[in-house]
Write a structure and sequence with these properties.
Layout: H1 5-12, H2 17-31, H3 39-56, H4 64-73
């Protein structure tokens, strides 16, 4: 008999964080069956651009705690 999504979730939560991340990645990959041509190259270029901005000092990273606080203030 097939298990419910809730049962699978509860079982997955007993995995260590690395295994949960692997499971999540595998599940997401099944949803992204069709990848638009050039999308991965575009994302790679965007990531490289952002890293270059951080490395050059053109932009400054904001700690997650500070960003979360700003978002909750809205």
């Amino acid at each position: 008999m097939a298990r419910s999504a809730r049962e699978l979730f509860e079982e997955a939560m007993r995995l260590d964080p690395k295994e949960r991340a692997t499971l999540m990645r595998l599940l997401i990959d099944t949803l992204d069956a069709e990848v638009e041509e050039g999308a991965e190259d575009a994302w790679r270029a965007e990531v490289e651009r952002r890293i270059a901005e951080l490395d050059s000092g053109a932009v400054e990273a904001v700690p997650w705690e500070e960003l979360r606080a700003r978002l909750y203030q809205r």
